[in-house]
Amino acid sequence: MIAIRQWLPSWVKIWQIMTAGAVFLLVTGNISPSEALKAIDWNVIAYLFGVFAISHALFASGISNEVSNWICADSRPVPAILFYFILFVTAVSAVLTNDAAAAIGTPIAIAIAASLGIRAALPLIALCVSVTVGSMFSPVGNPQNLLIVADGHFTNPVAVFLEWLLVPGLVSLAFTLVWFWYCFSREEQGDAPSHVAPEEQTMRQWPALLSTGLLCVLVLIDSFAHGSSWAPDLPLGALSLIAAVPLFLFSSHRVQLVKEVDWHTLIFFVSMFIVTGAVLKSGALQEWLSPWHDQLGDPVLVTSIAFFGSQVFSNVPLVEIYLNLLKGHETATLMLLSGISTLAGNLFILSAASNVIIVQQTEKHGVTPFQFWQFTRYVLPVTVVSLIACYAWVAFVTELNG
């Protein structure tokens, strides 16, 4: 239904479709209420709540508007605008995770579309790709990276990710810049969205900046201190909620903050976890992987299963089960699994949670996002190039390390 949503009535939203699927599975007994509650990753929900509160504060205080004005300042040429935009969201994705970058970058992408006089779809798709690729660079870039770090017991996870995934990430970003520059040059003027900016800057800027900075510091400290005894190992959800505290302490618009949290996207994720939980309970994924149980470390098999399996079962549960079935925990295998499962998000809207967040946030701003197959058409070249780069570089580093 999500794939054909453009032909459905306009009031049908992605979160409603996913919720209907979760309700159906509950009503038919495919998953019990208690199992559904256990299937929900409340850490992710808590992280998204804090991130949505911070992203709205950045928007309502005018900071997002200032960033978009700076990116498009002085009638910069399209390549320069794309370069600064991609660089910005990549950095946010690597430090604050892809979901945070998706929420923060959406109004900026819409503003860029308005500045260039084009449809919002193309800058939004460029945002999706940059957010996904950017999350490759760090151990906190996305949830599956966190699972791999926990399983790999790396002494310095930041250095490990930079050694194995920095080069393919940079190659992917360079191609993304060139490809979307070409796409932007062919895009016709017209149907540009209004510049999304708050009608009134209802919030002070310093609490939003403080919360954003606090989240950056907490995530970085947690990353560097991972597995050490000198700092507590707090989940990302707790870090996000702690970082959002200044907003609710020092803002006089606390009720507005709560109201403006993207509750529809949170409902989508709760429903998605229930649907995924039912799939995992059925044993379909485990049965699918069982014939290759003794070959799960083979690079070609890792690449194939990580990419295509992520399209069907979502990358986070696939990585979690894959790690449980792996006999060894070679760094090369773990890094290939991380890179390919992340890049799998650049194929369909549902392949990455950040894509869904961008769609939902765009509709929340009253702007028409991209369609399902339109997204795939634009991202397919980037997907092919980035997959080849990732596989080739991991193979090269593996050979180099003997």
State the main characteristics.
402 residues, mainly alpha, 19 helices
Strand runs, count: 0
Number of helices: 19
Strand content range: under 5%
Number of domains: 1
Q: Would you mind describing this structure in some detail?
A:
The structure is a single chain. The chain has 402 residues and is mainly alpha-helical. The protein is built from 19 helices and no strands. It has one domain (13-400). Helix 3 runs parallel beside helix 6 (98-116) and helix 4 crosses helix 6. It is globular and about 55 Å long.
Give a short overview.
This protein has helices at 14-27, 33-39, 42-60, 63-71, 78-96, 98-116, 121-134, 143-152, 157-186, 205-224, 236-250, 254-260, 263-282, 284-289, 299-313, 315-325, 331-343, 353-364, 372-400. The protein is mostly helical and 402 residues long. The chain has one domain (13-400).
What are the SSEs and their pairings?
Elements: H1 14-27, H2 33-39, H3 42-60, H4 63-71, H5 78-96, H6 98-116, H7 121-134, H8 143-152, H9 157-186, H10 205-224, H11 236-250, H12 254-260, H13 263-282, H14 284-289, H15 299-313, H16 315-325, H17 331-343, H18 353-364, H19 372-400
Helix pairs in contact: 1-13, 2-13, 3-6, 3-10, 3-11, 3-13, 4-6, 5-6, 5-7, 5-9, 6-7, 6-18, 7-9, 7-18, 7-19, 8-16, 8-17, 9-19, 10-11, 15-16, 15-17, 16-17, 17-19
